[in-house]
Amino acid sequence: MNDFFETVRKFLNEYLPHQRCLSENTIRSYRQALNLFVKFLREVKGYTVTKIQFSVINRETLLEFLDWIEMERKCSSSTRNQRLMVLRAFFDYAGIIDCAQTSLYMDSLNIPVKEEHGKVVEFLSEAALEVLLQQPDPTKKKELRNLTFMILMYDTAARCCELLGMRIKDLRLNSEHPIAYLHGKGGKTRTVPLLSNTVKHCKKYLRIFHSGEPNDSEKYVFYTIIHGSQNHMSHDNVSDFIERYGIMAAQKCAEMPKHLHPHMLRHTRAMHLYRNGMPLELLSQFLGHASVDTTRIYAYADTEMKRAALEKITSKEPDTKTSTAIWEDDEDMILKLSGLL
What we know:
The chain is mostly helical. It folds into two domains: 3-109, Orthogonal Bundle (DNA polymerase, domain 1); 126-299, Intergrase catalytic core (hpI Integrase, Chain A), CATH 1.10.443. Helix content is 56%, strand content 6%. It contains 14 helices and five strands. It has helices spanning 3-19, 24-43, 59-71, 77-97, 102-109, 126-133, 141-156, 160-164, 196-209, 235-250, 263-275, 280-287, 292-315, 331-337; strands at residues 171-172, 179-183, 189-193, 223-226, 229-232. The strands form two sheets. A three-stranded antiparallel beta sheet has the order 1-2-3, with no helix packed on it. A two-stranded antiparallel sheet has the order 4-5. A hairpin with a 2-residue loop joins β4 (223-226) and β5. α1 (3-19) crosses α4 (77-97).
């Protein structure tokens, strides 16, 4: 077996499952991407399997492959970016095995991901979020549960499945720096700090719903009661109450999105953190993304909103008889519109 395919074997069978601890589904996705790359080298570049070596691959080859999956296979920008991420990870590993292949990893880093213009990040403004959290009635037991779920989901930017799978032992509320453990994709666990207000709501919730349970209990934090017994709360249950509160909030706040779903709270927290200055690399870790490139969607969404705001300003034709352009005496505005600020 040549060096290329030997590295592929070790990457898929040893590195990803045992060192990266990725799930079977994720490894399957990596395998599919590498199979597609080999298919391209054979069918488009004309290499036989025995001729496929690291030496026949360079930056131009990678670019041709990415163009091929877009143009010939009609793949989306999202799929193109995912294939690029797999190749980056593979060449990074190859460089660890043999430093001679590090140049391929550097070449892959110099190929930018494509902006996914059709992908819209929906999130709540701070005003809309405040109104949403005012909808549950915390004097009612079930609504207290729903409110605590939404507060914890926003504060931790958790995926819905991560909160549904959270156990009492995953909450450390009495430590000097309260945290929550979130068990995400691929069996990976990340630690998320909790704000004091979230801690207060969680403690109240645990006193009522888990009275007497030890801190290291394996019981699920959130549950439903069916026929007198506790059951794992479903995603549909969460979707139902969040949608209902969204409809109620829309009657009081015009900024509420038309269709509210659980994942939007995660998007909301991410956008709020990014707008308040959290670097993308740190935000990526906070969200549990495998790559910072996944997190760039928030930077793109924020840029698009700024662009739309500027276009809205510049599209308003000033009445020269009664007023002057708003930027006429504003040097900062002129520089911003010129792209210099």
